[in-house]
Amino acid sequence: MKALFIALTGGLSLAQMAPALADNLNGKNLFTQRCAVCHGADIKASGPLAHKSSPPTPDLTTAAFRKRLSDYPGVIVSSVVLRPNGSLIPRTLRENGVKIPPHAWSIDDLRDLNQYMVGVISKSR
Ligand code: HEC
């Protein structure tokens, strides 16, 4: 009986780990495909279009942005959902001939992207 319990719970934790890995990959893919052209893989504004917009793309690994993220944990998701900088991003992409196809964001996508970016930012120095 004990062995069965261990087998069951062991199986459960593996099953729980699989989506976590997949989520991380989804977040990474979304960031790489839709954000990295400006923000850069390191989120330090190292992408090829980082200086093509006005204002330029900010480094999101600074102490100032970490504080912003801790004061307002929704800042990453709201930057996608609320588009606070209006047409700045589509215009910059268009002017530089970069096409990023539209994406129907799901709640899971937003969670995964947020989790991925917060992870990279918190590991960055
Ligand atoms: C065309 C270049 C470009 C792309 C693509 C881009 N950004 Fe940005 N991002 C910017 C610029 C420029 C700013 C600064 C805007 C400002 O100061 O008004 C910014 C600001 C931000 C901020 C800081 C917002 C704040 O209020 O402090 C976050 C978070 C962010 N972007 C997330 C993203 C995410 C997530 C994606 C991908 C889904 C993305 N960005 C795609 C250029 C870009």
Automatic annotation (TrEMBL):
For this protein, the record's PROSITE patterns field holds: CYTC (PS51007)
Q: Where is the Cytochrome c domain positioned along the sequence? A: 22-121
Q: Which domain of life does the protein's organism represent? A: Bacteria
| Keyword Nucleotide-binding among UniProt keywords | no
**Keywords, A to Z?**
Heme, Iron, Metal-binding, Signal
User: Where does the signal sequence lie?
Assistant: 1-22
- An example molecular function term from Gene Ontology annotations: electron transfer activity
Output the InterPro entries linked to this UniProt entry. Cyt_c-like_dom (IPR009056), Cyt_c-like_dom_sf (IPR036909)
Name of the featured protein = Cytochrome c
Q: Which organism is it from?
A: Pseudomonas nicosulfuronedens
